[in-house]
């Protein structure tokens, strides 16, 4: 099972409808969280508490005069919202996440709907129109690639664009053969994003650097605008509101370009190499260096590793993590000599065998040749079935 995400082509009325439903989902989530916190002293299971809160909302809150607007919106929205709240509590009690927090409007708009009949799925035809349960039929910027069945639909907003994502009951058959079967090491860096042990180099795309530069200039030009302060009761000016919209578009553009680069890079590596070895980087520790923190956080090292891990099931690859303390950069891959190597030195010059090689390529070769006791097979956080 995997998901498809497509952009919606909405008019003003449809955008208003989506915004109302996302606000409805946010209101229901915050209502459930508020009542749950007030009922913390009651010694019953969390699932029973959430079920009781949902009954109170259905039988009492929705009938109050001041909340009659909830009856004009889809009932599947609040049903799915209470289910998501229960899932967030389950993850917290299992130690997989933090305790749920109140949702804010500035954090983004999203909501989920499903078919009223849990045993019923919606047939989606390969066209530029999609039928969403209890909401209607909407246009798409891109056609659905093939005929499929879906049951749950999540609608979200990024900047000024609305997207719909849905899971389909299908499996991607992994390939039987890859172009290269030998282990390949991948060394991640700031100046060069990824260097492979066979000499392949992946650098950040130029459009991404251009978009980041444009974003910096936009922020500098608008640094003195009256942006508003909600705590002090100062409203944002009209030009400030335009700036916020423009800023959101630029941030979304940078995020989309970074996501596109990471997706294409990890897919290309997973299709080509059958055995991949990467270093277990301490990203949070690397961010402590204030001189490199911005560059390191912008690279997306964790997302690169996460995508390689979950794509191992889709492309039939074997991904291994090399121990964090393995000196891949300081070790000569030819003679095994270990010597200190400052970060400013980009060329590895072995003092024993006089080998002269790029430090990133030398580290990648050492990762591909790492001893067995330094390796650990990774398991993705979410499998293709989940």
What would the keywords be for this entry?
alpha+beta, single chain, 19% strand, 386 residues, seven-stranded antiparallel β-sheet, globular, 9 helices, six-stranded mixed β-sheet
Number of strands: 15
**Element pattern in H and E:** EHHHEEEEEEEEEHHEHHHEEEHE
- Please give the radius of gyration in angstroms: 25 Å
Q: Could you tell me the strand content as a percent range?
A: 15-25%
Return the structural class. Answer: alpha+beta
Tell me roughly what share of residues is in helical segments.
25-40%
Largest sheet: 7 strands, antiparallel
Gap from first CA to last CA: 7 Å
User: Average pLDDT, to the nearest integer?
Assistant: 86
Unreliable segments of 5+ consecutive residues: none
List the helices and strands and how they pair.
Blueprint lengths: L1 E8 L2 H27 L7 H14 L15 H19 L16 E5 L7 E3 L4 E4 L3 E5 L7 E11 L2 E8 L15 E5 L5 E3 L4 E2 L3 H16 L16 H35 L2 E5 L3 H4 L6 H7 L1 H15 L2 E5 L24 E3 L6 E3 H10 L6 E3 L9
Parallel strand pairs: 8-11, 11-12
Antiparallel strand pairs: 1-5, 1-7, 2-6, 3-6, 4-5, 6-7, 8-9, 9-10, 12-15, 13-14
Helix pairs in contact: 1-3, 2-3, 4-5, 5-8
Write up what this structure looks like.
The structure is a single chain. This protein has 386 residues and is of the alpha+beta class. It has two domains: 2-168, no CATH class; 184-377, no CATH class. It is 38% helix and 19% strand. The chain has nine helices and 15 strands. It has helices spanning 12-38, 46-59, 75-93, 206-221, 238-272, 283-286, 293-299, 301-315, 359-368; strands at 2-9, 110-114, 122-124, 129-132, 136-140, 148-158, 161-168, 184-188, 194-196, 201-202, 275-279, 318-322, 347-349, 356-358, 375-377. The strands form three sheets. Strands 1, 2, 3, 4, 5, 6 and 7 form a seven-stranded antiparallel beta sheet that branches. A six-stranded mixed beta sheet has the order 10-9-8-11-12-15. It has a two-stranded antiparallel sheet with strand order 13-14. α4 (206-221) runs antiparallel to α5 and α5 (238-272) crosses α8. The longest helix has 35 residues, at 238-272. The termini are close together.
